[in-house]
């Protein structure tokens, strides 16, 4: 297994593969790997000849320095896991390698970056768009594997690839959950036992919202409001948003015509969690 810590090293390795005909899959992560990440790695290992996994806590997508500093890091454990799985390359660049002094160019998706999570985390998706494009330019994979838990991020990356003519296929992968229903996330490690149980209620409420909507006895707005009121009853939980939206535009819908998804973001103490359910 190769471990590269700079874009120059990664690009040199990628150039050396040009004549081999081997395909490359890419799984971008911020480390602190859990089973959800590993499911993406398995999907890449199954589809591609070689798999690259990035381990990089991207500072430009954090609007709160305290959140960035508190983000869980376990790079040695992550390396061991990935080596045991048969990953070909770990790309763990430094901040200086990704964002050299004097860098003035950033990337932003206009239509999707400032709604939902973007409204509550200013500049977050500008950081996501920029780091993803830098990584794709260095790694040049055939496929990039992304989890559907971060659905807004998934749609934004799909737009980047389409609009900027990036020669890569985005492969969406289903959300993995703990036995309680809680979506797997590196941030879950910051929850104590009590908060972890409370966090699991988010998915139960989303499941109930889906059930009510499919029954069709009340409208989307009324059903959404019922779910919001259920969330408000959970002690210590604050709501950033809960919206029922079109899967492509992420704009709120008034009915269930077309493909629809419910997206939610909550906070338990200082820990922010997101989840969704397709309707």
Q: Can you walk through the features of this model?
A:
By secondary structure, the chain is α/β, with parallel strands linked by helices. It has two domains: 2-173, Rossmann fold (3-Layer(aba) Sandwich), CATH 3.40.50; 186-278, Pantoate-beta-alanine ligase, C-terminal domain (Pantoate--beta-alanine Ligase, Chain: A,domain 2, 2-Layer Sandwich). Helix content is 41%, strand content 20%. It has helices at 7-16, 35-47, 65-70, 75-85, 95-98, 117-120, 124-139, 151-163, 193-215, 220-232, and strands at 2-4, 24-29, 50-55, 89-91, 143-147, 169-173, 237-246, 260-268, 271-278. The strands form two sheets. It has a six-stranded parallel beta sheet with strand order 1-4-3-2-5-6, with helices on both faces. The chain has a three-stranded antiparallel beta sheet with strand order 7-8-9, with helices on one face. Helix 2 (35-47) links the parallel strand 2 and strand 3. Helix 7 (124-139) crosses helix 8 (151-163) and helix 9 packs antiparallel against helix 10. The longest helix has 23 residues, at 193-215. The protein is globular. The chain starts with a strand and ends with a strand.
Q: How are the SSEs ordered, and which strands pair?
A:
Layout lengths: L1 E3 L2 H10 L7 E6 L5 H13 L2 E6 L9 H6 L4 H11 L3 E3 L3 H4 L18 H4 L3 H16 L3 E5 L3 H13 L5 E5 L19 H23 L4 H13 L4 E10 L13 E9 L2 E8 L1
């Amino acid at each position: 297994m190769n471990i590269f810590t700079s874009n120059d090293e990664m690009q040199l390795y990628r150039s050396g593969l040009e004549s081999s005909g081997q395909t490359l899959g890419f799984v971008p992560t911020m480390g602190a790997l859990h089973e959800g990440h590993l499911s993406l790695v398995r999907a890449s290992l199954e589809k591609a000849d070689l798999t690259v996994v990035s381990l990089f806590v991207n500072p430009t997508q954090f609007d709160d320095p305290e959140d960035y500093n508190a983000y869980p890091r376990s790079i040695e454990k992550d390396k061991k896991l990935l080596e045991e799985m048969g990953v070909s390359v770990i790309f763990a660049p430094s901040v200086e390698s990704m964002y050299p002094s004097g860098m003035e160019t950033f990337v932003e998706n206009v239509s999707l970056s400032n709604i939902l999570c973007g409204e509550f985390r200013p500049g977050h998706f500008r950081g996501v768009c920029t780091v993803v494009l830098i990584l794709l330019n260095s790694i040049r994979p055939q496929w990039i594997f992304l989890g559907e838990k971060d659905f807004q991020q998934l749609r934004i990356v799909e737009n980047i690839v389409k609009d900027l003519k990036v020669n890569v296929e985005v492969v969406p992968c289903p959300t993995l959950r703990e036995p309680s229903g809680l979506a797997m996330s590196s941030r879950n490690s910051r929850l104590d036992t009590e908060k972890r149980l409370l966090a699991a209620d988010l998915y139960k409420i989303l499941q109930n919202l889906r059930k009510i909507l499919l029954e069709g006895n009340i409208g989307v707005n009324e059903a959404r409001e019922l779910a919001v009121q259920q969330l408000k009853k959970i002690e210590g939980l604050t709501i950033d948003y809960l919206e029922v939206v079109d899967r492509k535009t992420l704009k709120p819908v008034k009915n269930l015509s077309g493909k629809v998804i419910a997206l939610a973001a909550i906070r338990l103490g200082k820990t922010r969690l997101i989840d969704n359910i397709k309707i």
